[in-house]
Amino acid sequence: MRSADHDAKRQFNEILSLIDSTYLLPQLRAKPKYVWVAVSTACDLRCGFCPRQYIEPVDSGFMDLERFRAAAEQFDGMRKAALFGLGDPLLSKSFFEFVAICHARGLEVATTSNGTNLTEDVARRLIESGVEELGVSMDAATPELFRRLRAPGDFAAICRNVERFSELKRQAGSATPCLVIPCTISSENLHELPDMVNLAHRLGATGVSLSDLAAMREDFARYCVPDSPELSRRLDEAFQRGKELGLVVGRFRQKMNPWVDAAAETEGRPHGCPTLWEHFHLERRGETKYCCYIGDAIPGAFDRPMMDLLNSDCFVRLRESLIRGRLRKECRGCTNLTVNSPERVEAILREAEKRIDGAALLGETEREQLRQTVRACREVAPRVVGRPYAPPRDGLLRRLARRTLPAPLRRALRSVFQDAR
Questions:
Q1: Is the dihedral of CA 305, 307, 313, 317 positive or negative?
Q2: Domain-located, residue 157
Q3: pTM over 0.85
């Protein structure tokens, strides 16, 4: 459980992060809300679409606990730590110490597993440790397809592990960890999406997370499932089944072909990206990266202060290029890419003002600091995204024009005035 001090730091950082999400400045004022921690790159499965199978040489190991402990001292005020990696975090003998370190800094903890190592002892410790969310990746609802996609996993054994975990949760009267079944959508399992929801319900999950296959290799592109009537039908069936069973079924869109340099209709307009402004990736050996699609590895995450690293030249240059509308090929077509506008900025700043006024955990000094930041953003916004269009007030001149000028002429004049703004 977080202390009152942790809650106050989080409330301050959440509002500051909201202000940062105006994407007006390439530097971060707030700490990231999320940290992705690559606890493990060791795995006992050989899933065909996993990038781990095609890395030469393959990295198979675990993050150093003490180096992480030192890095985590900077995490106060952040929201969530995702303990993951190109492997199974539960293989790490130090996994529950990672959990304890994150909780001690006030962070919620989510993790994922392939379910093979979800033994009864591990299940009990997950419940007792207070981990908030557990994802068990399945990708198939039948043993035959499961063996093909997640070899050499034992479908029946993994299902038993997950069912036993859910039973232990019920016995303990615990709502956590919240169990979610992630599933990567491919041409191989498209027909099983509704059955994935049935399986998740049987296993005791509260939801299913469907995500597009990102083809990290060009020869995998044929397995991606672009928007089509067939995909829509299968997704509708899955969503409907989720409603019937009381499960939350969500879909996370991915850029399916990160290596494709697609045209972007919004090139040249100001942009932003929640990953670059709100997330911190901490890789096993202490590198960080911009996102999952850009392969650049930036060293120093164990050796430099987190905010210094995230505001270093390479990060600032990439954020600045998005603000100026110069998009990398990995960004074009990415579902995280956000087009900015004066209306969007103003809506965020108004929401920030509401949250500042209602921030019961903050003192007046902190609230005034946040208000000053909002005012500074309003001064910068016209230079970055322009001014929002404000309809003229219904004054005397407007009433006179409505009575004396024909509608086509009024519309033409209105268009001229809007363009002039």
A1: positive
A2: yes
A3: yes
